[in-house]
Design goal:
The protein is of the alpha/beta class and 577 residues long. It has 3 domains: 273 residues, no CATH class; 36 residues, no CATH class; 151 residues, Glucose Oxidase, domain 1, CATH 3.50.30.80. It is built from 22 helices and 14 strands. The strands form 4 sheets. Strands 12-11-10-9-13-14 form a 6-stranded mixed β-sheet. A 4-stranded parallel β-sheet has the order 2-1-3-4, with helices on both faces. The longest helix has 19 residues. The protein is globular, with a radius of gyration of 24 Å. It starts with 12 loop residues before the first helix and ends in a 27-residue tail after the last helix. The mean pLDDT is 95. Bound molecules: FE2/S2 (inorganic) cluster. The site of FE2/S2 (inorganic) cluster (FES) has 10 residues, from loops.
């Protein structure tokens, strides 16, 4: 292959190539680490942005995989530079990892900007790491390749497969209803996460890794490989080899991405039965790329792309390990190729058409034919109305069908602690026809945590109620399910209509008509608005202070307003004094 770049053109040459005092300092410090001039002179410097930490169990294997990536970089004639970044464990970071997605995006961009780097391997997987890494790398604009952590193995409990999140939620309700013993619950705790890797349902992690592949940022098939599989090790080394050539080819995100890349990402998300979080993250990524997509693009796609990945929680049985054995994402994309822009480019320098040519499905109950979807439409739907002028999101494929058209009485909670305290109250005035409402859980209100699958009151669980409508300005875990209306925008904390709802009001939801209506007159709503006073800011110092002032609303992707730059514009480079 012919390089389009010369060694003298490498960005890192500014640090290492000159015969001046500063370059002397840079070279002497590399020599200090034990490298020789031959190791790094005139070679692409590849940053490995590694989100490993002891706090992120989904990325435990990154400690080893980074060595595999380095091996690949060295084999291809590059020089690896590992740069650790915040690991954002979905299960450990409080109050919510969403508070820090943009932190990782900023960190990634600035790590790449401030160091002598020509290209990057981005190592992520746990929910917010994929969008955070991609957003930052897109803004910096250097050639980059995404290395997905891959899903963990299926959970196991008494010979039964367990799915991350989904089964925890399901059996927690069973326990609250008094139908599961302490011993069974303890066994489950030890069996639901039995290897490294991300959640293995079609949660946010699997969704976003799949989206990264559909956008063209991973090697073909990379997003489906289970974390402990030897294929994952080989894929990691190949990422290292490939990024070196991407630098020589100057294959930047600006050259790689097109409107078709985002069309593919949305269509694939729908076909996978994606997490609702895909909307927020992909909107944010697209705006960084200067190729913005909107909620309407998702709703439109959901009407003509069926859910063909039979993976929980939309599916009834299978997990990501099954998806990999069935052929993984290349097989799914091959099945739905008529919905894709197969001319879109990917990091291996080939088009989607070239990458998926010959991909086969090895289990057509896991990856269904398009004429036998698990849902003909409905991975996601966006409703609007006087309660959500900028939209509210629902996952119809995971909702009890009788709730898709429903009018119910609102039971309103101003914060999560009061909701949590109420749901176990045996005297709570609630029926399965009511609509639970939680507010002040949006971006500015609480950092938009995954509280949106509001717990069904224990009293109703004991009556056998398994689903009811629940409305909030929060998000929910991609492993969640049920009649949850999410991302209500604008949020209550800034005076969105959700702030005006009172317990006892009636709300009408019509998913097929894409509408949500608060059955209260305009005059009454105006009076309530006049009486509403904004709550004080959540944070008065530090990162939270900045977050509260600059976070955009859910339908805008929750990026910081000052980070939405013009994609492709010259990147400010650090001055080397
Ligand atoms: Fe990391 Fe679910 S906790 S992907």
């Amino acid at each position: 292959m012919t390089n389009t770049k010369r060694a003298a053109d490498l960005r890192s040459a500014r640090w290492f190539a000159k015969d001046d005092f500063r370059s002397f300092g840079h070279r002497s410090r590399v020599l200090q680490m034990g490298y020789s001039h031959e190791d790094f002179t005139a070679k692409p410097v590849i940053a490995i942005v590694n989100t490993w930490s002891d706090a992120n169990q989904c990325h435990t294997h990154f400690k080893q995989r980074v060595e595999d990536v380095k091996r690949g970089i060295l084999q291809a004639g590059g020089w690896p530079l590992e740069l650790p970044a915040i690991s954002l464990s979905e299960s450990m970071v409080k109050p919510t990892s969403m508070l820090y997605r943009n932190f990782l995006a900023m960190e990634t961009e600035e790590l790449l900007r401030s160091h002598p780097v020509d290209g990057a391997v981005l190592m992520g997987g746990c929910d917010k790491t994929t969008p955070g890494l991609l957003m930052g790398a897109l803004s910096m604009g250097l050639p980059c390749i995404y290395l997905p952590a891959g899903p963990m193995l299926r959970g196991n409990w008494r010979g039964q497969a367990l799915g991350s999140g989904s089964d925890a939620f399901k059996y927690w309700d069973e326990r609250r209803a008094g139908r599961l013993s302490d011993r069974a619950w303890a066994e489950m705790e030890a069996g639901i996460a039995r290897s490294h890797g991300t959640c293995m349902t079609m949660g946010t992690a699997a969704t976003m890794m799949g989206i990264a592949e559909a956008l063209g940022f991973t090697l073909p098939g990379a997003s489906s490989i289970p974390a402990p599989d030897a294929n994952h090790i080989r894929m990691s080394a190949e990422c290292g080899r490939r990024i070196v050539q991407m630098v020589w080819d100057d294959l930047t995100p600006a050259r790689l991405l097109s409107p078709g890349s985002f069309q593919n990402a949305i269509a694939v998300a729908m076909a996978m039965g994606c997490s609702t979080n895909a909307i927020i993250h992909l909107v944010a990524i697209s705006r960084r790329a200067g190729l913005p997509v909107t909620l309407d693009d998702f709703d439109a796609a959901s009407r003509h792309v069926g859910v063909i990945a039979n993976i929980r929680p939309s599916g009834d049985r299978y997990l990501m390990e099954d998806f990999f054995y069935a052929g993984g994402l290349p097989a799914l994309m091959h099945v739905m190729r008529d919905k894709l822009d197969v001319s879109a480019l990917t990091v291996n320098g080939k088009t989607v058409a070239e990458n998926i040519a010959g991909a086969e499905v090895f289990n057509d109950d896991v990856i269904r034919p398009v004429n036998n979807p698990i849902y003909a439409e409905g991975a996601l739907a966006v409703l609007r109305g006087n309660l959500a002028p900028d939209g509210v999101v629902i996952k119809p494929s995971a909702v009890a069908p009788h709730l898709l058209r429903h009018t119910g009485r609102a039971i309103v909670f101003d914060d999560y602690p009061s909701l949590k305290a109420a749901v176990d109250d045996p005297d709570l005035d609630v029926t399965g026809d009511d609509i639970l409402v939680l507010r002040n859980a949006g971006p500015k209100g609480a950092g938009m945590p995954e509280w949106g699958m509001l717990p069904i009151p224990t009293k109703l669980l004991k009556q056998g109620v398994t689903d009811m409508l629940r409305l909030s300005d929060a998000r929910m875990s991609g492993t969640s399910y049920g009649g949850c209306l999410l991302h209500c925008s604008p949020e209550a904390f800034i005076g969105g209509p959700l702030a005006l709802v009172k317990t006892g009001d009636r709300i009408t939801v019509d998913v097929p008509a894409r509408s949500i209506h608060l059955e209260v007159s305009d005059e009454e709503l105006a009076a309530r608005r006049a009486a509403w006073t904004p709550p004080p800011p959540r944070y008065e110092r530090g990162y939270g202070w900045m977050f509260g002032r600059h976070i955009l609303q859910a339908h805008e992707g929750c990026d910081f307003d000052f980070l939405e730059t013009q994609f492709g514009a010259p990147v400010p480079e650090p001055v080397i004094y």
